[in-house]
Amino acid sequence: MFRVPPPTIVSIETNLACNCNCIMCPRTPVLKTRRNRVMPQDMVIKILDEIQEWKPKIQWGWINEPLADPKLFGAIAYARSLGLKGWINTNGGLLDDDNIPKLINSGLTQVNFSIDSMDPETYEKSRVGLKFRPTIEKIMKFINENNRCGHPVSTMASHIVIPGHNDNEMEYFRKFWSPIVDNIQQPLYRSRGADWDKEFISETPTARYCYFIENEMNITTDGDVPLCACDAICATPEANIKDGVYNAWNTPARAETIDRIRRLGLINLGFCREHGRRN
After folding, report:
1. Residues 7, 111: contact at Cβ < 8 Å?
2. Most Cβ neighbours (<10 Å): which of 83, 113, 146, 243?
3. Nearest to 146 by CA among 114, 102, 90, 177
4. 54 assigned to some structural domain
């Protein structure tokens, strides 16, 4: 079986803290499966030391709100000292006068704002615990300050297309944010064990390629690595980084799965059929 090339993205879940409970996020069941609520500091260092030769991009966070981690900026600084670049996905609710300048000067290449709706009622139904107007004001404050400082950080507005919830807002969302941010992302919904999965009738995947299995390595607070980013709950992890970060990625199961997908398509995998990934 072939050697799996190193991932182009490594998502590091430094903690499980979050300031909201989104209908498309599997955080509730995740809290029942993770052993560590916070990734040990020596584990963060181990990951960064071992991946520095690959130079992947780092996504700071996975099933959490990155700005809820008080050690985030220290970890980002260490990564930058190794020549590693990265970004965060944030709901923006924790942006304040303290961390806005820290974020702008952190060396991150991009900040992605997870917004999903410009209708206050729809927004507050999807991002439970956040208030629409105060959060948008915080995001705008960051964008304005970033521009004032010479635009050191690229910005993106993200609109997860949630079937039956906000899928009629795509055009307006793009029209509103296009003049304000550098990029707009509108990914299709992926079933990962969230509350909204019960409402979502998935499509059977047929593609012969999976970006996530071949490119994105997700590391939980426990150091566990699932085969795919859709397996956010990670109840039965594929591997753990204790024996080496690359070894946790380059497993026989990953190589065999990539080969099977290329030959037979995603429809051949039970996990993909169950989670209804749209590739």
Report:
1. no
2. 113
3. 102
4. yes
Looking at the domain assignment, is residue 3 inside a domain?
no
The tens digit of pLDDT for each residue in 26-67 reads 999 999 999 999 999 999 999 999 999 999 999 999 999 999
* Residue ranges making up the domain that contains 162: 9-275
Domain count, the chain: 1
Instruction: Identify the CATH number of the domain in which residue 39 sits.
Output: 3.20.20.70
Q: Tell me whether residue 1 is in a domain.
A: no
What distance in Å separates the CA atoms of residue 207 and residue 46, rounded to the nearest whole number? 35
Q: Is the pTM of this model over 0.85?
A: yes
Using DSSP, state whether 172 is helix, strand or coil: helix
- C-alpha 123/C-alpha 116 separation (Å) is 7
Q: Are 162 and 24 in contact (CB under 8 A)?
A: yes
- Residues 190-219: pLDDT tens digits? 778 777 777 666 666 778 888 889 999 999
